[in-house]
Amino acid sequence: MEGPLVAEFELIRRIRARATVRDDVVLGIGDDAALLRVPPGMLLAVATDTLNAGVHFPTGAAPIDIGWKALAVNLSDLAAMGAQPVWSTLSLSLPDGDAAFVDGLLDGFLALAQRHDVALVGGDTTRGPLSVCVTVHGFVDPQRVLRRDAARTGDDLWVTGTLGDAAGALAQWQAGQTIDATLRARLDRPTPRIDSGIALAPVAHACIDLSDGLLADLGHVCVASGVGAEVDIDALPASSELRMRFDLPARRVLQATGGDDYELCFSAAPEQRDAIERMAQDIGVAITRIGRIIDGARPRALLPDGREWLPSCTGYTHFR
Ligand code: ADP
Ligand code: MG
Predict the structure, then answer these.
(1) Are 116 and 79 in contact (CB under 8 A)?
(2) For labelling alongside 21, which of 157, 187, 270, 274 has CA 20 to 30 A away?
């Protein structure tokens, strides 16, 4: 234990004093509920994700990284819907009233909130095992929502950024090796692809954010859309750091099945190729074509010679 231990109301006071605000927040932290204004004609997109110590981050992780990641994984869900994030709540279960820990957590959370103009409008503070539950709210035009069930046979499959970096860092950590700093940053501080999601909304069909591994998450798209998918495994975009640290067979596993990428995987009609490539340039995010949607029921990864590449497992599942 480092800093002073304080009571719950003192923690809430500190959070309230630093909370980000917006004009559409009529009433923020301090009453029994927040009052928020949704613009006419827009849908409200809502997503929640919990990070538990020992499950989603190692016990002893830096509070600033926990705070960043707790918001980032939630914003990633809004990005995958094509939504513009606006509000958040932060529910903390804490073993004790460690003010320094909460301050550090806020440093990470609020840095990312400010970057995307997201207000912190409420939450809960209780005692228990360390756990951080964040809910985010976003606006989305009903005509431009990106859903999992909208993939069509004949669509191209695309992915933003690079895949496998976070899983690479985890693999190095599990093997007791020195963790490459660039890979580690991808694991600790994922970048939610908000701009990409909004820019894609008019051109993409289905979209999902990659949290549990490409093949596992693409499986959800296949089930929801009633389609199959082919992924050209050696077309998956890899960072130079990942190429440097892992050989091709290891890289394929990390890229196709590793979790925590928080990139967007989406489908779009082939006529949109030029528009998507222009868009990638405009927003400064790499977007790579990695396969196609076909008739079928599940995703298959293909080697360059057309044979199926079979992983030993497709992604992360709780309770297995
Ligand atoms: P109540 O007992 O009415 O639920 P609380 O004491 O839980 O009130 O919370 C008081 C106010 O502080 C509420 O507006 C709540 O949203 C806010 N709040 C509590 N914990 C947090 C937190 N961790 N982050 C942001 N706001 C919080
Ligand atoms: Mg409460």
Answers:
(1) no
(2) 187
Cα-Cα-Cα-Cα dihedral of 46, 51, 56, 62, to 10°? Answer: 120
Using a 6 Å cutoff on CB, does residue 197 contact ligand 1? no
Q: What is the pLDDT of residues 40-91, one digit of tens each?
A: 999 999 999 999 999 998 888 999 999 999 999 999 999 999 999 999 999 9
Percent helix, strand and coil across the chain, each to the nearest 5: 40, 25, 35
User: What's CA 38's distance to the chain center, in Å?
Assistant: 24
Q: Which residues pair with 92 in a beta bridge?
A: 125, 132
The two beta strands, 119-127 and 84-94, are parallel
118-142 average pLDDT score: 97
The number of angstroms, rounded, from the C-alpha of 141 to the middle of its chain's C-alpha atoms is 21
Ligand 1 site, residue 27, Cβ cutoff 6 A: no
Q: In 10 A of CB 213, how many CB atoms?
A: 27
Single-letter amino acid code for the residue at 158: W
> Which residue has the least CA distance to atom 22 on ligand 1?
123
Distance CA 259, CA 243 (A): 17
Sign of CA dihedral 109, 159, 166, 220: positive
Q: What atom of ligand 1 comes closest to residue 29's alpha carbon?
A: 14
3 state SS of 185: helix
